[in-house]
Amino acid sequence: MLSLFYAVAIIAAGSNASPCKVSGSSVSATVPSGSGPSNAAGGYLRLANSKNSLQLAGQASNIQLTNDTGASVGQQFIVAASASNPAPIATDLASSPSLVPVASGACPMGFLNAVFNTGASKNQGWPETVWESLSSNGINDWIGFSLGTLDTKSTYTGPDGHPARTMPALDAAQIHVVMDPTDVDSAVTMMKSNSAPQYLELFNEPDYSYQGITPITDAKTSAQDLAPLFNMPHPNTSYISPALAYANSDWLPTFRDHCNKCFDQIPIIAEHIYSPDPAAVMGFITQLHNTWPDKKIWLTELSPSSAQCTLQSTGSGPGTVTDYINTLIPQIVGLGYVEKIFWNSGEWSTGGLTAGGDGSCNPSLTDAQGNPTEVLKALHAVCGGTGGSVTA
């Protein structure tokens, strides 16, 4: 997500300004009942009744429009501008904005995102420099291994032994995860609160135990464990399927068969892919789509890193991570049904994610000081310098 510089709401038909609330990197505005989003033009978001417009200048994200009855009339979109080119651009909210390319050669809006592993809070430059590097190079959201913000998760404790430091922009960009059955009660409490998230992933790799630490939960049991979330209203939250280590196994179909039509409540299928071979990655994605053709796909963990990876993290020729990115990302975008990818990792890592130490197959987006790596710059460039956010 992008940092908020400033936002101005203008009523085109008169002098009354639409109420506009600004908090961190979030903007919300109220528009008259009966209004709805339609095509944007000339840097304005035009509402369907053609009488009102919302102009947003600067850089903003997480923007939600509601009418004066509280009903939602718009989804998340991004407006971005720079000091040298301050004209804002808004997007059409009438359809899912993240599936609409914003410019020729660009990635869909919100397409580029990152993963923060438990070592993130121990790195220099965390969180300010790390997040500034990521968000200024096209990264929109991030996913980690926590239901709550990182300061609530002991595994993200900083090097001084204190809870991980966070900041509003970082918290606003988080995709929350119900890690395993022990998180369900807390997730229900979160969903009943005034801070229900826009998205909620339901279990992280229940089919695989990471280093014997995380629990394995079979599909039938998982369906039973998650029932409290399926049995409660969640009008403002989209559920994401359990993110499997092996998404094309029979785990998800079995889960669906035992969760009492819960897949009617799951518009997004999550998949984790680790492979240095672009053709193999595409094969995993298309196989998943063939199984769930009516669902969007999020790659909530994507990386070339694996035991077989020998790609170099620097340079741009054959055999480099940059070449992998330049080959793979346009193919994924071209599918049209992959809404988001989350590159692993957003922080600097020389451990489990790297096949050969610092120089070989290191997919880190930021370095040890939190500055952009060549990998991050390559992702930003292949998305037309936008990373999936709208640029002026």
Rounded mean pLDDT score: 77
* Total number of strands: 13
Poorly predicted spans: 1-104
Quickly count the helices. Answer: 9
Strand content: 5-15%
In spatial order, strands of the major sheet run: 10-9-8-7-6-13-12-11
Distance between the termini: 16 Å
What does the largest sheet look like? Answer: 8 strands, parallel
Given helix and strand content, the structural type is: alpha/beta
The helix content is 10-25%
Overall shape: globular
Radius of gyration: 21 Å
The helix/strand order is EEEEEEHEHEHEHHEHEHEHEH
Provide a short characterization of the protein structure:
With 392 residues, this protein is an alpha/beta fold. The chain is built from 9 helices and 13 strands. α4 (219-225) packs across α6, α7 (278-291) packs parallel to α8 (321-335) and α8 (321-335) runs parallel beside α9 (374-382).
Model description:
The protein has about 400 residues and is of the alpha/beta class. The chain has 9 helices and 13 strands. It has helices at about 130-135, 170, 185-190, 220-225, 225-230, 250-255, 280-290, 320-335, 375-380; strands at about 20-25, 25-30, 45, 55, 65, 110-115, 140-145, 175-180, 200, 240, 270-275, 295-305, 340-345. The strands form 3 sheets. The protein has an 8-stranded parallel β-sheet with strand order 10-9-8-7-6-13-12-11. The chain has a 3-stranded mixed β-sheet with strand order 1-2-5. Strands 3-4 form a two-stranded antiparallel sheet. β6, α1 (about 130-135) and β7 (about 140-145) form a beta-alpha-beta unit. α4 packs across α6, α7 runs parallel beside α8 and α8 runs parallel beside α9. It is globular, with a radius of gyration of 21 Å. It starts with 19 loop residues before the first strand and ends in a 10-residue tail after the last helix.
